[in-house]
Amino acid sequence: MNSPIIDKIMNEQDRDFIRVLEDLIDVLIARGLITMDMLPRDAVEKLAMRRQMRDTLRDQAGTPVRDISAIDRKLAALRFKE
């Protein structure tokens, strides 16, 4: 049985590790070791959505947007597959 603190720590580590995996995939693609068409379709869609969300949540200077209402407006403008 996990405590809420352990769950929070594990979730944060999972989030950070997912970002490491995204960066690793980017490096492998940049070096020509893999291509997007080698990945499962679901993986490609998830990677594309995360990139689009990260790009959307940055302002024009590349700084993450901190204003929650601005984030809500930006996310509302995205078109997600249902």
Describe this structure in words.
- This protein has three helices and no strands.
- It is mainly α and 82 residues long.
- It is extended, with a radius of gyration of 16 Å.
DSSP strand tally: 0
pLDDT averaged residue by residue: 80
Helix segment tally: 3
The low-pLDDT segments are none
Q: In the residues, how many domains can be counted?
A: 1
Q: Mind telling me the C-alpha Rg?
A: 16 Å
The SS-based structural class is: mainly alpha
How much of the residues is beta strand, in percent?
A: under 5%
Q: Distance between the terminal alpha carbons, to the nearest Å? A: 34 Å
Shape label: extended
Which sheet architecture does the biggest sheet show?
none
List the helices and strands in order: HHH
- Percent in helix: 55-70%
Task: Please describe the topology of this protein.
Layout: H1 4-30, H2 41-56, H3 68-77
Keywords summarizing the entry:
single chain; 82 residues; mainly alpha; 3 helices; 65% helix
Task: Kindly summarize this structure in a few lines.
Helix content is about 65%, strand content about 0%. It has about 80 residues and is mostly helical.
